[in-house]
Amino acid sequence: MKPVKVGVLGLGTVGGGTVNVLKRNAQEISRRAGREIMITHASARDLTRERICDTQGITLSTDPYEIINDPEIEIVLELMGGTDLAKELVLQAIANGKHIVTANKALIALHGNEIFAAASKANVMVAYEAAVAGGIPIIKTIREGLSGNQVNWLAGIINGTGNFILTEMRDKGRDFADVLTEAQALGYAEADPTFDVEGIDAGHKLMILASIAFGIPLQFENVYTEGITKITRADVEYAGELGYRIKHLGIARKTANGIELRVHPTLIPERRLIANVDGVMNAILVQADAVGPTLYYGAGAGSEATASAVIADVVDVVRALALDAQNRVPYLGFQESEINNLPILAPAEIETTYYLRLTVEDKPGTLADITGILAKQNISIEALIQKEPKQGETRVSIIMLTQKTIEKEMDAAISAIENLSSVTGQVTRIRLETLG
Ligand SMILES: NC(=O)C1=CN([C@@H]2O[C@H](COP(=O)(O)OP(=O)(O)OC[C@H]3O[C@@H](n4cnc5c(N)ncnc54)[C@H](O)[C@@H]3O)[C@@H](O)[C@H]2O)C=CC1
Ligand SMILES: N[C@@H](CC=O)C(=O)O
Ligand code: NA
Question: How far does the centroid of ligand 2 lie from the alpha carbon of residue 308, in Å?
Answer without folding.
Answer: 14
